[in-house]
Amino acid sequence: MMSQEEINKIKQKVKEKELEKIRKQWFREYKKCKNVSAVCQKYGIHRSTFYYWKKRIDLESSGKGKGYAKSVRLISYSRKPKTNPKTYPDEIIKLIIKIRKRTGRGAEYIWFMLKDKYAYDASVTGIYKVLKRNNLIKKRKHKHKANKTYEAPKYLPGEKVQVDVKYVKIIDKLGKKYRWVYQYTSLDVATGIKCKFIYEDHSGQSSIDFLAKIRHFYPFKIQIIQTDNGFEFTWRLNPDIHKEHPFTTQCKLYGYTHNLIPPAYPRANSHVERTHRTDEEEVYRGKTFTSLEQLHKINLKTLKYFNEKRPQKSKHFLSPIKFGILKFRLHKQKLNYTVLNV
């Protein structure tokens, strides 16, 4: 498969061949009428353009075989340099392409990886251009809507923990039938530390069990639990039930405030929703799971990687736990993964 640069070169050659034919017509017409103004008026060109090409075609050959033949003097060859002293070495270009294909991450992440692991200082713009030349940047189908900028409120660890549920598909061994299981996810807004666990259903009992797990998982005290308006968290949108939901009652027993986001407004839970996209891209996409045990195993592995190793741009390319330790001086510096063991 040809690269975009090679395709552009071929297109440019075809274009110049067509322009050469048009320029030959100018001089055929000039031989007939011997009138420069008439030729320029007929073909819609400027006199300076005509004399520029006339000067090129009237050049005498040096006789040493180093000049261009008259047949190709009407082609406008590119004066672009064939080499560039600022071009990245081939090894670095191959490394950029390899990281992109392996991780699917953008130019800024690749810049960080080159600087951190390979001690090579490249620019983000240069890396983006390398990706674009190798057709690794997809064009947007729709115009990107500009978000209204606002100053996000700042939180301390445990001051707000967002909780949400993601649907995950399990397929039987024959690959014909499937069923849904439910990934409960919590994310501390201040540090970005995540906790997740798979349940067979998304009932109030599962929500309470997950709340007990995150209570012992985080190395700091939780103050606010923020959820959407699903029936696993609240009966706020159920007109037939007027009593308090068991999840809200359990939050009060633990000393937490249970906040509910506005209905049909998932952006209010944007932090945990964004981690669901990360899970979809890095954990679930292109893979099939046949058992709950298999899901538990891979979720625990990816959760440890997310919290302890995965660099994040919004956290100065630190992992969430390192960011929490450096910025908030966490006393407990280990997460309690034992509560997630099945």
Q: So what's the CATH class of the largest domain?
A: Alpha Beta
Global Rg: 32 Å
CATH topology of the largest domain: Nucleotidyltransferase, domain 5
Q: Give the tally of structural domains.
A: 3
- What's the rounded overall pLDDT mean? 90
- Coarse shape: elongated
Give the termini separation: 48 Å
Strand order of the largest sheet: 3-2-1-4-5
Q: Name the CATH homologous superfamily of the largest domain.
A: Ribonuclease H-like superfamily/Ribonuclease H
Major sheet characteristics: 5 strands, mixed
Helix coverage percent: 40-55%
Structural class: alpha/beta
Strand-and-helix sequence, N→C?
HHHHHHEEEHEHEHHH
Summed up, the helix count is 11
Observed structural traits:
alpha/beta; Nucleotidyltransferase, domain 5; 43% helix
